[in-house]
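sry for the spam today, last one i promise. struct tokens for design, 327 residues
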């Protein structure tokens, strides 16, 4: 019964991360409705105001957890700085390389960054199931990236140099996404409630983004569309999405959460085709199929009937119960 309970808990966590990923997948398309607003302003209003809303909603929990948060202040600060850097790199990447490529690189390489962090810092070993899922997801995101970059270059819409710079910024976004996911998961598994951990990390990150918003955010108020995009970004994908992500991190490791969030670039690519009018070659659609296969590998029920939980264990550590995942 305990194993089944853990499986249901992991399944709930996975669903929360997937729901958050769907919301995040709308951000690139939403940003195209405010073409006069720069990527720094978009990133600052989305993560800045969204983070402050998280802190406000979790204020009482954060105050109660203040002693434990102070004891982990280094982790909180690392997460907050990563939260502040991530949206600036992410939205700049999408502006330079396109919605699909920027999202694919930023989110698609995050699982590898998470795995490296967990291996180096926590000395954790990932299962073969996670490795298979990550390989499928990375291959799919690579196909999406190559297909979109080739199309952009061939159509003359974006320069190769711009695509390369955007790809580099996407890698920065991936590293910071992995870092704040790891930091939040570490706080939560250290006994801090998920809302308090997310409120502290994202609230402080939001404060760090306020100067950027003040310096670059004037175009957001120049039109109703700009204001609407800013409000949507802060309230829906950033506030609601990261509340869901925090719940997910309470039940699955950061490496699994970042792998599940590979759904985001697939959603972004489909919306870029349906709404923005971008064209996705066959290779891109093949990449989306591989991403879906990656998610299926991670979330398929095991023979015991529990949803897969990607456990990570220290080398030489013997778990208290028999593992329910493939090894």
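last one done:
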């Amino acid at each position: 019964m305990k194993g089944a309970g853990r499986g249901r808990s992991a399944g709930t966590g996975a669903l929360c991360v997937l729901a958050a990923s769907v919301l995040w997948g709308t951000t690139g398309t939403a940003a195209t409705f405010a073409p006069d607003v720069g990527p720094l302003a978009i990133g600052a209003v989305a993560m800045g105001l969204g983070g402050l809303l998280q802190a406000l909603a979790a204020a009482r929990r954060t105050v109660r957890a203040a002693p434990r948060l102070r004891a982990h202040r280094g982790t909180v600060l690392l997460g907050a700085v990563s939260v502040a850097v991530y949206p600036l790199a992410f939205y700049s990447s999408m502006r330079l390389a396109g919605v699909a490529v920027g999202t694919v690189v930023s989110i698609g390489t995050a699982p590898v960054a998470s795995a490296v962090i967990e291996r180096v810092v926590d000395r954790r070993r990932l299962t073969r199931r996670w490795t298979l899922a990550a390989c499928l997801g990375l291959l799919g995101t690579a196909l999406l990236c190559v297909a979109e970059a080739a199309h952009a270059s061939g159509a003359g819409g974006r320069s190769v140099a711009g695509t390369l710079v955007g790809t580099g910024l996407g890698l920065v976004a991936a590293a910071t996404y992995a870092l704040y996911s790891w930091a939040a998961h570490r706080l939560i598994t250290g006994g801090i409630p998920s809302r308090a951990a997310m409120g502290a990390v994202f609230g402080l990150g939001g404060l760090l983004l306020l100067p950027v918003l003040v310096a670059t955010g004037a175009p957001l108020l120049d039109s109703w569309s700009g204001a609407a995009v800013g409000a949507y970004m802060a309230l829906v994908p950033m506030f609601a999405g990261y509340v869901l992500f925090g719940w997910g991190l309470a039940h699955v490791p950061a490496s699994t959460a970042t792998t599940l969030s590979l759904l985001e670039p697939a959603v972004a690519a489909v919306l870029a085709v349906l709404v923005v009018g971008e064209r996705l070659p066959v290779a891109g659609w093949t990449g989306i199929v591989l991403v879906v296969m990656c998610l299926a590998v991670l979330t398929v029920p095991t023979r015991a009937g529990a949803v897969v939980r990607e456990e990570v264990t220290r080398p030489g550590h013997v778990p208290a119960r028999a593992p329910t995942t493939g090894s």
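The chain has a mean pLDDT of 80. ok im logging off now
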